[in-house]
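Below sits the subject:

***
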Amino acid sequence: MLRKGRRSLIFVITLASRSTLHLNLQRLQVIRAIVAGLQLAALAYARFELALNLNYTLILLILMLLALLNGGLLWRLRRAVSPSQQEFLLHLLVDVLGLCVLLYFTGGATNPFISYLLVPVTIAAATLPWLQATGVAASALCSYSLLLFYYQPLPAFMPTAAGEHAEHMSGSNPVPNLHSVGMWLNFAVSAALIIYFVVKMAAELRVREAKLRQYREETLRNEQIVAVATQAAGTAHALGTPLATMAVLLKEMVVEHTDQPLLLNDLTTLQNQVNNCRVTLQSLARKADFKHREPQQLPLAAFLKSMVQQWQLLRPEVPCHFAVPAGDSPTLAVDTTLEQALINILNNSADASPTGISIMASWDAHQWQLQVRDQGAGIAREVQELLGTSIISNKADGMGVGLVLSQATLNRLGGSVSLYPQQPHGTLTVIEVPLVQNHA
């Protein structure tokens, strides 16, 4: 059974062709290219200006290896498969490891470029979940800690007293001086603060963005519904006068043609139809004020059976298979608009599949569900993304408001409606509404 992770708007409009992780990997690739250029410039400066005693061949090989990895990332980004968070995490860990190896041959923790380890930590804090970002920070801090003890010393990068002390040391692993320890402590505190604050802020921004997107969609849909309701109210008011005129004229014509039975029968039929229209408009006005009406408590199975039977009277030409679990059903608080919302959805399925539809009801302790499956041609992806949020119809004579109004009703009741394409054809419509417990 397909379910959504949360109850909110059912259709989220996603127009971007590339994922956020894809774009973040592209940015990481650009950062790597810039850093590689700066590293080559620094290496050239150290060789030709400072004449530092470095293993230039090995360092160049390491830079070439990192460049090849960046080229592999470029090839990877051109593929259609979207990257995952684990892949992005792996790239950040590779950056930490590569920098750690370079720093080992260039002074270790005494190299002022040691603080660049904060860059992958910051990127992880802004883009990855808490646990993965903490892993990147821990790997950077571990690399920094190792470089305090294990590195090839460069006296030019060390304080004077420490440099003099390093020249007289017999061991290959110098003891960290106060300057290096202070830099390490500053790095540790900075990494912890970045992880704490940036991850929190990034999470809050993502939540806020999702809420704003949901609010925009709800506002757009509500504006459309208000426009439809306003037009419907105006139309109902405009129909009142001609219907009243027709009722008066038909009444007079009935009196004048009492001697013509066939015509009298037709006039009586028209009179009944006009009265039905007037009653329908009056009922519409009464039902519109649903906020001041108490929901009716009904057994769920009985309500669904009654609803399907009423729909079958409206669409007798469409075969329907209806299944409902046996036994007692929970009590449902039936809103005055719920039945019409369900009928709208059944009509959409029937229009798509005139050869027949299947309806299956189910429930548990928290919600009830109605699955409607049709055998139609299905819904195009671009149309599916807009259904329920925009007035759109792929029927020649359709107004496109049925699903929008149904979705608005179900959302107001805390429920949702989702559409899933089926193979080889057809669409599965899943309606989920929470149960209202009767504590009376």
Residues 1-18, 161-171, 390-394 have pLDDT under 50 and may be disordered. DSSP finds twelve helices and seven strands in the chain. The first strand starts at residue 296 and ends at 299.
